[in-house]
Amino acid sequence: MFIYITLLATISSLARAATYNSVDELPSLDWDFLVVGGGTAGSVIASRLSEDSRFNVLVIEAGPTNEDALLSIVPGLQARLAHTAYDWNYTTVNIPGYNNRSINYQRGYILGGSSSVNGMVFTRGAASDYDRWARVTGDPGWSWDKLQPYIKRHEKFQPPVDNHNITGQYDPTVHSSTGMVPTSVSGFQHPSVDPFTLMVTQQLGGEFKYNLDFNSGMPLGIGWLQATIGHDGTRSSAATSYLTPQIQARNNLHVVLNTFVTRILETPSQGRGGLNIRTVEIHTQSGPPITMTASKEVILAAGAIGSPRILMSSGIGDRNDLKALGIPVILHNPSVGRNFSDHPSLNNVTFALKKPVDVGPWVNLDSDPELQALALELWQTNRTGPFTALVPYDLFGWVRVPDSVFRDSGFEDPSSGPTAANIEMLIGAPTGVAWETRLRLSSPASRGYVALRSSDPLDPPLINPNYFSHPFDIVGMREAVKAAKRFVSAPVLKDNIIQMNPPWANASTEDEIDQVIRNTAVTAWHASGTAKMSPKNVDWGVVDPDLRVKGVKGLRVIDASIMPYIPCAHTQTAVYFIAERGADLVREVWH
User: Fold this and answer.
1) Closest Cα to residue 8, out of 332, 234, 312?
2) Residue 14 clears pLDDT 70, i.e. is over it
3) Which residues, in sequence order, are CB contacts of 195 under 8 Å at separation 6+?
4) Taking 90 as the threshold, does the pLDDT of residue 5 lie above it?
5) Are 579 and 301 in contact (CB under 8 A)?
6) Of 526, 504, 527, 501, whose CA–CA distance to 515 is shortest?
7) Record-annotated residues binding FAD (predicted)?
8) Which member of 175, 254, 526, 591 is catalytic?
9) What is the pLDDT of residues 266-306, one digit of tens each?
């Protein structure tokens, strides 16, 4: 314990060199770039831009520091981060497709953003996901092949914390060990469970074939989980990776915390024609708002909820919506806040076992305080035990909705192509008494929105993911449940399966299954798409392929909101290489 506390204290003292708790503490400098949001993308952008000593870069982060945030640092404590000081604590509107339920929508309110609070799953998606981005934006730079330098630049693949032999659990040729974000396969695996899953890949093959590495751009099949957890058994976030003490010690990089940007403002053009926005407005607790201006660019990196909120509060959005709230319109763009995409999820698809699987002494970890204390002690003293990982699942599956479903239903496939997944499956038996598959619709057709609640920028926005608003998606999620049933039909499992557990046990018709889905589905918290990219010369979309806000000079958006389509993957990985390429696009202009 003493070693652990001393280490944190040392890191904290080093990292304070260029980090401030309020704008009052900032030095008087001329800022070249103002980065709004110190999350996954913002941390990357600031780190890369400040590599050039000519640029003064300021990151403006609404949340607190990630230092000493044990709930964030320890992978196994991730589930406790919701509804804490590190969460924006958003709630959606009542969602019609979820039978008018509202759900909590966790977002990282902390340096590192959602990379500091997410589930740490490291998946890239299909190569065709990014080829589709390139196609719809008209920019080949967003294709899978052209993104490879950025994909490799951000990753630092390492041996897992338990040093087990990972030969055959990943493909080293598709990974980088020289990047920024430590990643690995799980360092706390489940040897009494995993052989069953691997045997299914042999017995059934086909859609459940073994995939050596689903981060190759070809994700279909069953493969080993990879996560943003490095060899030291701690969470790898954008803050821990791109804003290290050494990087924050740069005299041209500054980070101000606990600072909320309300709006962006038009800046006197100084000979630059058109709408010029390089000024941010910052809320203060005790006085009027203050403003700060960048000499080069303002970069919005506030995420798929925060970035459109700031744009709309500033008068950039649909003119009718803004006028209805009394917000002066400076640029009519009805695409702002639209195209919200996320992965609807089911976490309750379980099958009762006749004979329990012995999953070891940690089976009651979620409910036993003594086991939790022991797990934390093991993590603190020597980085061992179950808290070095998050989920009690070591293997993932990515599968397609059968072609016959598209033929019979008449729906078009919303995925990016035949090598992209429609469905994600997390596979295991964490309790030992039931076989579990957590399911996600990884290529949804439904689109939602983020909108303003009022003209007050401090009001939380209206969030409507609009799950199942497109009729294919309920069909797709129903097919996910069928895929789970096919998986447990393998000879190695089927004789030990009694039945599906409630609420599925009594759902036999399609209508009954659909109602269970609508009543129990949740979210993957993969918000994206609300400031989507489009070609330069079209009147739809929010940013061009260089991530400049259309119709505005001096302003870019670089975060998950720019995705025109959500990839069939956990979105943090795509955000890392969006930010890496985005930083290069900025540097190309100001080199």
Assistant:
1) 234
2) no
3) none
4) no
5) yes
6) 504
7) 118-121, 261, 525-526
8) 526
9) 998 765 668 999 999 999 888 899 999 999 999 999 999 99
| Partners of residue 265 on adjacent β-strands | 279
pLDDT, tens digit (0-9, with 9 covering 90-100), for 40-91: 999 999 999 999 999 999 999 999 999 999 999 999 999 999 999 999 999 9
Query: What whole-number distance in Å separates Cα of residue 138 and Cα of residue 159?
Result: 39
Amino acid 391: pLDDT: 73
118 is in an annotated binding site: yes
261 carries a ligand binding annotation: yes
- Among the options 154, 231, 254, 570, which is catalytic? 570
Known catalytic residue: 164?
no
In 416-439, which positions are buried (b, 16+ CB within 10 angstroms) versus exposed (e)? beebbbbbbbbbbbbbbbbbbbbb
Q: Binding residue per annotation — 121?
A: yes
- The answer to whether residue 283 is catalytic is no
- Determine the 3-state secondary structure of 317 from DSSP: strand
Distance CA 126, CA 110 (A): 30
The pLDDT mean for the chain works out to 95
Residue type, 278: R
Rg of the chain over CA atoms, in angstroms? 23
Say if CB 467 and CB 344 are below 8 A apart.
yes
Residue 11 has pLDDT above 80, yes or no: no
Show the tokens assigned to 99: 């039978």
Q: Cα–Cα distance between 423 and 478 in angstroms, integer? A: 10
CB 424 within 8 A of CB 396: yes
Give the pairing type, strands 155-157 and 181-185. Answer: parallel
Cα-to-chain-centroid distance, residue 491: 36
Cα separations in angstroms, 61 against 35, 110, 246, 435, 575: 9, 8, 19, 42, 17
Q: Tell me the pairing of strands 497-500 and 423-428.
A: unpaired
